[in-house]
Protein backbone atom coordinates (compact mmCIF):
# COMPACT_ATOMS: atom_id res chain seq x y z
CA UNK A 1 0.00 0.00 0.00
CA UNK A 2 1.20 3.50 -0.81
CA UNK A 3 1.16 5.82 2.17
CA UNK A 4 -0.07 9.38 2.54
CA UNK A 5 3.52 10.54 2.14
CA UNK A 6 3.66 9.37 -1.47
CA UNK A 7 3.96 12.47 -3.63
CA UNK A 8 3.58 11.19 -7.19
CA UNK A 9 0.90 8.54 -6.51
CA UNK A 10 -1.02 9.27 -3.29
CA UNK A 11 -3.48 6.53 -2.41
CA UNK A 12 -5.59 4.97 0.32
CA UNK A 13 -7.32 1.58 0.42
CA UNK A 14 -9.64 0.99 3.38
CA UNK A 15 -9.33 -2.76 2.98
CA UNK A 16 -5.83 -2.40 4.40
CA UNK A 17 -6.97 -0.31 7.37
CA UNK A 18 -8.28 -1.64 10.67
CA UNK A 19 -12.07 -1.30 10.85
CA UNK A 20 -12.03 1.05 13.83
CA UNK A 21 -9.65 3.43 12.01
CA UNK A 22 -11.34 3.50 8.64
CA UNK A 23 -13.51 6.57 9.09
CA UNK A 24 -10.64 8.64 10.49
CA UNK A 25 -8.27 7.40 7.78
CA UNK A 26 -10.66 8.43 5.02
CA UNK A 27 -11.25 11.88 6.51
CA UNK A 28 -7.52 12.43 7.03
CA UNK A 29 -6.67 11.31 3.48
CA UNK A 30 -9.34 13.59 2.00
CA UNK A 31 -7.90 16.53 3.91
CA UNK A 32 -4.35 15.74 2.75
CA UNK A 33 -5.21 15.01 -0.88
CA UNK A 34 -7.89 17.72 -1.27
CA UNK A 35 -7.36 20.56 1.23
CA UNK A 36 -10.59 22.44 1.80
CA UNK A 37 -12.91 19.42 1.62
CA UNK A 38 -15.02 18.41 4.63
CA UNK A 39 -16.34 14.85 4.94
CA UNK A 40 -19.79 14.37 6.50
CA UNK A 41 -22.13 11.45 7.12
CA UNK A 42 -19.48 8.74 6.77
CA UNK A 43 -20.15 5.58 8.77
CA UNK A 44 -17.63 4.68 11.52
CA UNK A 45 -16.56 1.47 9.75
CA UNK A 46 -17.13 1.76 5.99
CA UNK A 47 -16.67 -1.73 4.48
CA UNK A 48 -14.82 -0.59 1.38
CA UNK A 49 -13.38 2.49 -0.24
CA UNK A 50 -10.25 3.63 -2.02
CA UNK A 51 -8.77 6.64 -3.74
CA UNK A 52 -5.73 6.91 -5.96
CA UNK A 53 -4.27 9.87 -7.79
CA UNK A 54 -1.26 10.84 -9.84
CA UNK A 55 0.22 13.93 -11.37
CA UNK A 56 -0.85 14.38 -14.96
CA UNK A 57 1.28 17.11 -16.47
CA UNK A 58 0.30 20.32 -14.66
CA UNK A 59 -2.91 18.60 -13.54
CA UNK A 60 -4.03 15.46 -11.74
CA UNK A 61 -6.01 12.32 -12.52
CA UNK A 62 -7.93 10.49 -9.77
CA UNK A 63 -10.01 7.35 -9.43
CA UNK A 64 -12.16 7.01 -6.32
CA UNK A 65 -14.40 4.24 -5.01
CA UNK A 66 -16.39 5.97 -2.29
CA UNK A 67 -18.68 4.62 0.42
CA UNK A 68 -21.85 6.60 1.26
CA UNK A 69 -20.93 10.09 2.50
CA UNK A 70 -21.47 13.79 2.01
CA UNK A 71 -18.59 16.08 0.97
CA UNK A 72 -18.68 19.85 1.31
CA UNK A 73 -16.22 22.30 -0.20
CA UNK A 74 -16.39 25.89 0.98
CA UNK A 75 -13.71 27.29 -1.42
CA UNK A 76 -12.16 29.40 1.34
CA UNK A 77 -9.88 26.50 2.32
CA UNK A 78 -8.77 25.54 -1.17
CA UNK A 79 -5.61 27.66 -1.43
CA UNK A 80 -3.32 24.94 -0.12
CA UNK A 81 -1.90 22.47 -2.65
CA UNK A 82 -2.74 18.80 -2.18
CA UNK A 83 -0.29 15.93 -2.58
CA UNK A 84 -0.38 16.18 -6.36
CA UNK A 85 0.45 19.88 -6.24
CA UNK A 86 -2.63 21.64 -7.67
CA UNK A 87 -4.72 23.72 -5.21
CA UNK A 88 -8.46 23.18 -5.56
CA UNK A 89 -9.06 26.92 -6.03
CA UNK A 90 -6.82 26.91 -9.09
CA UNK A 91 -8.47 23.88 -10.69
CA UNK A 92 -11.39 22.91 -12.90
CA UNK A 93 -12.45 19.25 -12.97
CA UNK A 94 -14.08 16.92 -15.47
CA UNK A 95 -15.85 14.11 -13.60
CA UNK A 96 -16.82 10.80 -15.21
CA UNK A 97 -19.09 8.40 -13.33
CA UNK A 98 -17.97 4.79 -13.79
CA UNK A 99 -20.35 2.92 -11.45
CA UNK A 100 -22.93 3.86 -8.84
CA UNK A 101 -24.21 7.43 -8.53
CA UNK A 102 -23.02 10.80 -7.24
CA UNK A 103 -25.19 13.82 -6.52
CA UNK A 104 -23.27 16.99 -7.44
CA UNK A 105 -24.34 20.54 -6.66
CA UNK A 106 -22.71 23.91 -7.36
CA UNK A 107 -23.81 27.49 -7.94
CA UNK A 108 -27.51 26.72 -7.41
CA UNK A 109 -27.47 23.76 -9.81
CA UNK A 110 -27.44 20.06 -9.03
CA UNK A 111 -27.30 16.81 -10.97
CA UNK A 112 -27.61 13.07 -10.31
CA UNK A 113 -24.56 11.67 -12.05
CA UNK A 114 -25.03 8.09 -13.27
CA UNK A 115 -22.68 5.64 -15.06
CA UNK A 116 -21.17 6.96 -18.31
CA UNK A 117 -22.25 10.52 -17.54
CA UNK A 118 -19.95 13.56 -17.25
CA UNK A 119 -20.17 16.76 -15.24
CA UNK A 120 -17.90 19.72 -14.53
CA UNK A 121 -16.86 21.22 -11.19
CA UNK A 122 -15.19 24.61 -10.64
CA UNK A 123 -12.69 24.83 -7.78
CA UNK A 124 -13.24 28.55 -7.20
CA UNK A 125 -16.82 28.02 -5.97
CA UNK A 126 -18.34 25.95 -3.15
CA UNK A 127 -19.71 22.55 -4.16
CA UNK A 128 -21.23 19.44 -2.59
CA UNK A 129 -20.81 15.79 -3.54
CA UNK A 130 -23.09 13.15 -2.04
CA UNK A 131 -23.01 9.36 -2.33
CA UNK A 132 -26.33 7.97 -1.12
CA UNK A 133 -26.86 4.61 -2.83
CA UNK A 134 -24.26 2.14 -1.61
CA UNK A 135 -21.14 3.41 -3.39
CA UNK A 136 -19.78 5.63 -6.12
CA UNK A 137 -16.93 4.76 -8.48
CA UNK A 138 -15.75 7.74 -10.47
CA UNK A 139 -12.74 9.29 -12.10
CA UNK A 140 -11.97 12.93 -12.42
CA UNK A 141 -9.40 14.94 -14.26
CA UNK A 142 -8.27 18.13 -12.53
CA UNK A 143 -6.53 20.74 -14.63
CA UNK A 144 -5.37 24.32 -14.10
CA UNK A 145 -8.49 26.44 -14.36
CA UNK A 146 -7.06 28.87 -16.90
CA UNK A 147 -5.95 26.03 -19.17
CA UNK A 148 -9.60 25.15 -19.75
CA UNK A 149 -11.38 28.48 -19.40
CA UNK A 150 -9.15 30.47 -21.71
CA UNK A 151 -10.27 28.06 -24.42
CA UNK A 152 -13.89 27.61 -23.33
CA UNK A 153 -14.88 30.33 -20.83
CA UNK A 154 -18.59 29.51 -21.23
CA UNK A 155 -17.95 26.19 -19.43
CA UNK A 156 -17.77 28.20 -16.22
CA UNK A 157 -21.58 28.35 -16.47
CA UNK A 158 -22.01 24.64 -17.15
CA UNK A 159 -20.93 23.13 -13.82
CA UNK A 160 -23.10 20.57 -12.02
CA UNK A 161 -25.08 19.70 -15.13
CA UNK A 162 -25.14 16.27 -16.78
CA UNK A 163 -23.58 15.56 -20.16
CA UNK A 164 -25.14 12.20 -20.93
CA UNK A 165 -23.89 9.29 -23.07
CA UNK A 166 -26.58 9.86 -25.68
CA UNK A 167 -24.92 13.15 -26.69
CA UNK A 168 -22.24 12.51 -29.31
CA UNK A 169 -19.69 15.00 -27.98
CA UNK A 170 -19.91 13.67 -24.43
CA UNK A 171 -19.58 10.09 -25.70
CA UNK A 172 -16.37 10.95 -27.56
CA UNK A 173 -14.91 12.74 -24.53
CA UNK A 174 -15.89 9.85 -22.25
CA UNK A 175 -14.00 7.34 -24.40
CA UNK A 176 -10.89 9.51 -24.39
CA UNK A 177 -11.09 9.94 -20.60
CA UNK A 178 -11.30 6.16 -20.16
CA UNK A 179 -8.25 5.67 -22.39
CA UNK A 180 -6.36 8.28 -20.37
CA UNK A 181 -7.34 6.61 -17.10
CA UNK A 182 -6.19 3.19 -18.33
CA UNK A 183 -2.90 4.38 -19.84
CA UNK A 184 -1.78 7.36 -17.75
CA UNK A 185 0.62 5.20 -15.72
CA UNK A 186 2.59 4.43 -18.88
CA UNK A 187 2.92 7.98 -20.18
CA UNK A 188 5.99 10.13 -19.66
CA UNK A 189 5.56 13.52 -18.02
CA UNK A 190 5.79 15.41 -21.31
CA UNK A 191 3.18 13.09 -22.82
CA UNK A 192 0.87 13.77 -19.88
CA UNK A 193 1.24 17.52 -20.42
CA UNK A 194 0.41 17.17 -24.12
CA UNK A 195 -2.60 14.97 -23.32
CA UNK A 196 -3.91 17.41 -20.72
CA UNK A 197 -3.69 20.33 -23.12
CA UNK A 198 -5.49 18.24 -25.73
CA UNK A 199 -8.25 17.34 -23.28
CA UNK A 200 -8.67 20.99 -22.28
CA UNK A 201 -9.19 21.82 -25.95
CA UNK A 202 -11.41 18.79 -26.45
CA UNK A 203 -13.79 19.86 -23.67
CA UNK A 204 -15.27 22.21 -26.26
CA UNK A 205 -16.89 19.15 -27.85
CA UNK A 206 -19.48 19.09 -25.06
CA UNK A 207 -22.89 20.29 -26.19
CA UNK A 208 -23.83 23.28 -24.07
CA UNK A 209 -26.90 23.00 -21.89
CA UNK A 210 -27.23 26.77 -21.50
CA UNK A 211 -29.25 28.50 -24.19
CA UNK A 212 -27.34 31.71 -23.50
CA UNK A 213 -24.09 30.47 -25.04
CA UNK A 214 -23.68 32.31 -28.33
CA UNK A 215 -22.18 30.42 -31.27
CA UNK A 216 -20.08 33.48 -32.10
CA UNK A 217 -18.26 33.07 -28.78
CA UNK A 218 -17.05 29.62 -29.75
CA UNK A 219 -16.13 30.83 -33.24
CA UNK A 220 -14.12 33.76 -31.86
CA UNK A 221 -12.23 31.59 -29.38
CA UNK A 222 -11.48 28.99 -32.05
CA UNK A 223 -10.10 31.75 -34.29
CA UNK A 224 -7.84 32.94 -31.47
CA UNK A 225 -6.45 29.43 -30.96
CA UNK A 226 -5.84 28.98 -34.69
CA UNK A 227 -3.90 32.26 -35.07
CA UNK A 228 -2.37 32.61 -31.61
CA UNK A 229 1.26 32.75 -32.76
CA UNK A 230 0.63 35.65 -35.14
CA UNK A 231 1.60 39.06 -33.68
CA UNK A 232 -0.92 40.67 -36.02
CA UNK A 233 -3.86 38.94 -34.32
CA UNK A 234 -6.18 41.66 -32.98
CA UNK A 235 -9.76 41.99 -31.79
CA UNK A 236 -10.65 43.88 -34.97
CA UNK A 237 -9.29 41.09 -37.14
CA UNK A 238 -11.38 38.49 -35.29
CA UNK A 239 -14.50 40.60 -35.72
CA UNK A 240 -13.80 41.09 -39.43
CA UNK A 241 -13.53 37.31 -39.86
CA UNK A 242 -17.12 37.08 -38.57
CA UNK A 243 -18.27 40.07 -40.70
CA UNK A 244 -19.25 41.84 -37.51
CA UNK A 245 -18.21 45.09 -35.86
CA UNK A 246 -15.65 44.78 -33.10
CA UNK A 247 -18.01 46.54 -30.70
CA UNK A 248 -20.81 44.06 -31.39
CA UNK A 249 -18.57 41.02 -30.99
CA UNK A 250 -17.03 42.50 -27.83
CA UNK A 251 -20.54 42.95 -26.41
CA UNK A 252 -21.33 39.28 -27.13
CA UNK A 253 -18.08 38.10 -25.51
CA UNK A 254 -18.53 40.33 -22.48
CA UNK A 255 -22.09 39.12 -21.91
CA UNK A 256 -21.19 35.43 -22.32
CA UNK A 257 -17.77 35.29 -20.64
CA UNK A 258 -17.18 38.54 -18.78
CA UNK A 259 -14.05 39.32 -20.82
CA UNK A 260 -13.36 41.28 -24.00
CA UNK A 261 -11.79 39.98 -27.19
CA UNK A 262 -8.46 41.62 -26.35
CA UNK A 263 -8.47 40.07 -22.88
CA UNK A 264 -9.09 36.63 -24.38
CA UNK A 265 -6.16 37.04 -26.78
CA UNK A 266 -3.88 37.87 -23.85
CA UNK A 267 -5.17 34.99 -21.73
CA UNK A 268 -4.76 32.48 -24.54
CA UNK A 269 -1.22 33.65 -25.25
CA UNK A 270 -0.19 33.60 -21.59
CA UNK A 271 -1.73 30.17 -20.99
CA UNK A 272 -0.02 28.77 -24.08
CA UNK A 273 3.30 30.20 -22.85
CA UNK A 274 2.70 28.61 -19.45
CA UNK A 275 2.11 25.23 -21.12
CA UNK A 276 5.31 25.48 -23.18
CA UNK A 277 7.37 26.51 -20.14
CA UNK A 278 6.13 23.44 -18.26
CA UNK A 279 7.08 21.13 -21.14
CA UNK A 280 10.54 19.64 -20.56
CA UNK A 281 10.96 19.23 -24.33
CA UNK A 282 11.10 23.04 -24.52
CA UNK A 283 13.70 23.37 -21.73
CA UNK A 284 16.57 24.28 -24.10
CA UNK A 285 14.64 27.21 -25.56
CA UNK A 286 14.80 30.67 -24.02
CA UNK A 287 11.74 32.27 -22.46
CA UNK A 288 12.01 34.90 -25.20
CA UNK A 289 11.61 32.25 -27.89
CA UNK A 290 8.55 30.90 -26.07
CA UNK A 291 7.11 34.42 -25.93
CA UNK A 292 7.60 34.92 -29.68
CA UNK A 293 5.96 31.56 -30.40
CA UNK A 294 2.88 32.76 -28.52
CA UNK A 295 2.58 36.00 -30.47
CA UNK A 296 4.38 38.39 -28.12
CA UNK A 297 6.84 40.86 -29.65
CA UNK A 298 8.13 42.49 -26.45
CA UNK A 299 9.74 40.05 -24.01
CA UNK A 300 9.77 42.55 -21.13
CA UNK A 301 6.06 43.18 -21.58
CA UNK A 302 5.49 39.43 -21.75
CA UNK A 303 7.36 38.84 -18.48
CA UNK A 304 5.36 41.53 -16.65
CA UNK A 305 2.04 40.26 -17.96
CA UNK A 306 2.99 36.68 -17.11
CA UNK A 307 3.81 37.61 -13.51
CA UNK A 308 0.56 39.53 -13.10
CA UNK A 309 -1.41 36.52 -14.36
CA UNK A 310 0.41 33.66 -12.64
CA UNK A 311 2.21 35.29 -9.71
CA UNK A 312 5.71 34.34 -10.87
CA UNK A 313 8.06 35.13 -13.74
CA UNK A 314 8.43 32.74 -16.70
CA UNK A 315 11.89 31.76 -15.43
CA UNK A 316 10.59 31.05 -11.92
CA UNK A 317 7.82 28.83 -13.31
CA UNK A 318 10.31 26.87 -15.40
CA UNK A 319 12.60 26.38 -12.38
CA UNK A 320 9.68 25.10 -10.28
CA UNK A 321 8.67 22.67 -13.03
CA UNK A 322 12.27 21.39 -13.21
CA UNK A 323 12.38 20.81 -9.44
CA UNK A 324 8.97 19.06 -9.47
CA UNK A 325 10.09 16.80 -12.30
CA UNK A 326 13.12 15.70 -10.30
CA UNK A 327 11.01 14.63 -7.30
Structure overview:
This protein is α+β, with helices and mostly antiparallel strands. It folds into two domains: 11-186, Jelly Rolls; 215-326, Homeodomain-like (Arc Repressor Mutant, subunit A, Orthogonal Bundle), CATH 1.10.10.60. Helices cover 39% and strands 20% of the residues. It contains eleven helices and eleven strands. The protein has helices at residues 22-33, 145-149, 168-183, 189-202, 215-226, 235-241, 246-257, 261-278, 287-293, 299-310, 314-326, and strands spanning 11-13, 37-40, 50-56, 59-66, 69-73, 91-100, 102-106, 109-113, 118-122, 127-131, 136-144. Strands 1-3-4-11-6-9 form a six-stranded antiparallel beta sheet, sandwiched between helices. Residues 1-8 have low confidence and may be disordered.
Question: In a nutshell, what does this entry contain?
Answer:
The protein has 327 residues and is of the alpha+beta class.
List its salient traits:
about 325 residues, alpha+beta, Jelly Rolls, Arc Repressor Mutant, subunit A, 2 domains, 6-stranded antiparallel beta sheet, 5-stranded antiparallel beta sheet
